[in-house]
Amino acid sequence: SVAILWLRHDLRLSDHRALAAALDEFGLIVPVFVLDESDENRWALGGASRWWLHHSLAALGAALRKRQSELVLRRGDSVSILRDLVRETGAAALFCGETHEPWLRSLTDAVEKAVGVPVHRRRVSTLFDAEAIRTKSGGQYSVYGPFARACRAQPEPEDPLPAPQSIPSPKRMPRSDALDDWGLLPKKPDWSGGFDTMWTPGEAGADKKLKSFLKDRLDGYGASRNVPGDPQGTSMLSPHLHWGEISPNQVWHAAKQAADRKKAKSGWDSFSGELLWHDFSAYLLRYNPEMPEKPLRAAYAKLPWRRDKAGMRAWQQGRTGIPIVDAGMRQLWRHGWMHNRVRMITASFLVKHMLVSWQDGEAWFFDTLVDADLATNAASWQWIGGCGTDSQPFFRVFNPVTQGKTHDPDGRYVRHYVPELKALPDRWLHCPWQAPQSVLGKAGLVLGRDYPKPILDLDRGRDRALDAYRKHVRGA
Ligand code: FAD
């Protein structure tokens, strides 16, 4: 008999527990992806995510065809589409992956009520079962350290499952939309040229990224993860993990084996810690569904955020006059991705120096990141904003010049993304406004003409933020 496999953020065939369970119990599988834009949430897919999704679905469709199956694409209201597909195929059950996005969880409940057949959910996108990670008194963790310790005390994540050799499908598959008709790719202007050079969406692309990272880089990860100018300092698996083209279990086990082989204990400790941050963000969202919109600490609700249209545009376009901030924002625009250290610096600059709300920054990242993830993005912006459950204190303000000098000492990162500063000596690269005229002249640079003057004074911006915090955060 037939089962429907409803795919969402789990666009893969290997280590897919919902697919494996469906194959165990049912002979014939109908894999379906529904592009549901009827949902009125403000977190509709951003532009970069749409680009990724197009290519990822194309890759998944090809992988299914190799296994005598095909991907059914439908656009519209998930509830009615899945109800109709169950009727049309005579399916006796629906299988899907567990999700942590609140709207997707309620949508799954609504589908369950409507389809009239059992709906089976399996964990596909976290290492540990959120229900099993409880404090001694049975509550939820709100701080990363104890959460991570509780995870590490659990039995190891299950061994990954191989992709099935074949996925039998009914003789007559339901009709599918043509992917190209969905218009997920950018029209004119096409901003995605820098995406093509960096990414191969799909399971094979994810596997390649994982293998190349584990081959050379895991040992030094503890240090290299903080060097944005090192193009292989981190795994760059985040969009693949977000779309579920690879499971955290697969990454966990492969990294652990590589670390054992190379005796790279410290690399493993830091890397597995980041994978647990990924689980922790999902966990936080699951138990705090308002996290993308509201500060988790209510005391922060009254901060007097500024509306600064021109400043916001300068930040988005990488034209603030602060080199490390501009390099990061340009990397984001060009490749749909930004190094973690620089995400922290650019976010802190917006929220603290510019005093623009973390929600505005969160929305821009959500639109432009290929790894835009409701949970991790919200948790990270709240962390920077000081209002998350587990946060950088608001009064600790990243100084972008010091950060630049520490993490990009040879200027490799800034020179790559802000080439107009290329000729400046290292000493002045992160603070061109402090360079003597003679140095600027020698580098052929006129500030305000070739590169912007800073949009604000860093000391004054910092003081303004601290002032607002003292006055408006209850109990500060
Ligand atoms: P690696 O260093 O190789 O880490 C491996 C994996 O661990 C990552 O792929 C990711 O899944 C996870 N991970 C790493 N760092 C973090 C972290 N700080 N929090 C949670 N998980 C982590 N990450 C997203 O996936 N989507 C987002 O929308 C997102 N928004 C962010 C916004 C801000 C303001 C900040 C400061 C961070 C954000 N991050 C986000 C977290 C982090 O920057 C990225 O996960 C990381 O840069 C991805 O690169 P990588 O795959 O090479 O990471």
TrEMBL record:
<dbReference type="Pfam" id="PF03441">
    <property type="entry name" value="FAD_binding_7"/>
</dbReference>
<dbReference type="InterPro" id="IPR005101">
    <property type="entry name" value="Cryptochr/Photolyase_FAD-bd"/>
</dbReference>
<comment type="similarity">
    <text>Belongs to the DNA photolyase family.</text>
</comment>
<protein>
    <submittedName>
        <fullName>DNA photolyase family protein</fullName>
    </submittedName>
</protein>
<dbReference type="InterPro" id="IPR018394">
    <property type="entry name" value="DNA_photolyase_1_CS_C"/>
</dbReference>
<dbReference type="InterPro" id="IPR006050">
    <property type="entry name" value="DNA_photolyase_N"/>
</dbReference>
<feature type="domain" description="Photolyase/cryptochrome alpha/beta">
    <location>
        <begin position="1"/>
        <end position="127"/>
    </location>
</feature>
<keyword id="KW-0274">FAD</keyword>
<dbReference type="Pfam" id="PF00875">
    <property type="entry name" value="DNA_photolyase"/>
</dbReference>
<dbReference type="InterPro" id="IPR036155">
    <property type="entry name" value="Crypto/Photolyase_N_sf"/>
</dbReference>
<dbReference type="InterPro" id="IPR036134">
    <property type="entry name" value="Crypto/Photolyase_FAD-like_sf"/>
</dbReference>
<dbReference type="InterPro" id="IPR014729">
    <property type="entry name" value="Rossmann-like_a/b/a_fold"/>
</dbReference>
<dbReference type="InterPro" id="IPR002081">
    <property type="entry name" value="Cryptochrome/DNA_photolyase_1"/>
</dbReference>
<keyword id="KW-0157">Chromophore</keyword>
<keyword id="KW-0285">Flavoprotein</keyword>
<feature type="region of interest" description="Disordered">
    <location>
        <begin position="153"/>
        <end position="175"/>
    </location>
</feature>
